[in-house]
Write a structure and sequence with these properties.
Layout lengths: L3 H8 L7 H12 L2 E3 L5 E3 L6 H18 L7 E2 H8 L3 H13 L3 E5 L2 E4 L1 H13 L1
Antiparallel strand pairs: 1-2, 3-5, 4-5
């Protein structure tokens, strides 16, 4: 039988996401995008819908932040335009939909962040399509 300390070490992880979970998210994301050292996201599949491109950029930045804390997990509207290749009016409309659907949040005006529990189902859905 495991000791209390052994169970505690398994239960309490040192970061927001365990290493195994981060590895799983990273493997799913790599198939669809890459992130450079400045946080710019390169989407490998330009045929994705605008909503999916936005979610992919936000998910990639969240993952990248946990690998390199100098990369912000928060993304501005202008960064979404550049990284997702979607017009600003579409960014505003789709981010509004995503906030309403509780997929992302807005920590500050004009700044967006994916909700961590939405990343895996989103990336799994991309994998299936």
């Amino acid at each position: 039988m495991a000791t209390l300390e052994e169970l505690k070490a398994q239960f309490l992880v040192s970061s927001n996401l365990s290493e195994a979970k981060m590895l799983s998210l990273l493997q799913l994301a790599i198939a669809h995008c890459a992130v450079d050292s400045k946080g710019n996201v390169d989407i490998k599949s330009p045929k994705l819908a605008a909503r999916d491109k936005i979610m992919l950029v936000l998910s990639a930045r969240y993952i990248a932040h946990h690998l390199d804390e100098s990369i912000s997990m928060d993304v501005t509207g202008d960064e979404l335009v550049r990284n997702a290749g979607v017009a600003l009016d579409q960014i505003r409309a789709r981010t509004s939909d995503l906030v309403r659907d509780k997929q992302i949040e807005t920590p500050a005006r004009g700044t967006y962040r994916v909700l961590v529990h939405r990343i895996d189902p989103f990336l799994q859905g991309l994998k299936a399509s």
